[in-house]
Amino acid sequence: MKPELRSLFAILKDKGIRLVVAQVLDDVRDQSRYEFDQLFGEDAFYDTLEDVMKDYQQQTGSTG
Fold first, then answer.
1. Residues 6+ positions from 18 with CB-CB distance below 8 Å
2. For the segment 3-41, what is each residue's pLDDT rounded down to a tens digit?
């Protein structure tokens, strides 16, 4: 995994921002599954951007 991605993740985490990913190609995720899961956590992967928004709205009570 690229050092830049790890650095970005650390910077965002320090600021209280959770990085999630959506629509990751299966072959990309399969190639680096362990590293991605370790860095992001298994629950940081979403099938679609709509799924990200739905989860965010449920967690925050936001409607927009």
1. 12, 44
2. 888 899 999 999 999 888 888 877 776 777 778 888 888
Name the 3-class secondary structure at 35.
helix
Residue 45 three-state SS: strand
Q: Where are the domains of the chain?
A: 3-60
E-only strand ranges, the chain: 21-22, 45-46
- The answer, as to whether pTM is greater than 0.85, is no
Cβ–Cβ < 8 Å for 9, 19: yes
Instruction: Provide the 10 A C-beta neighbour count for residue 1.
Output: 12
In angstroms, what CA-CA distances link 27 with 11, 33, 59?
27, 9, 30
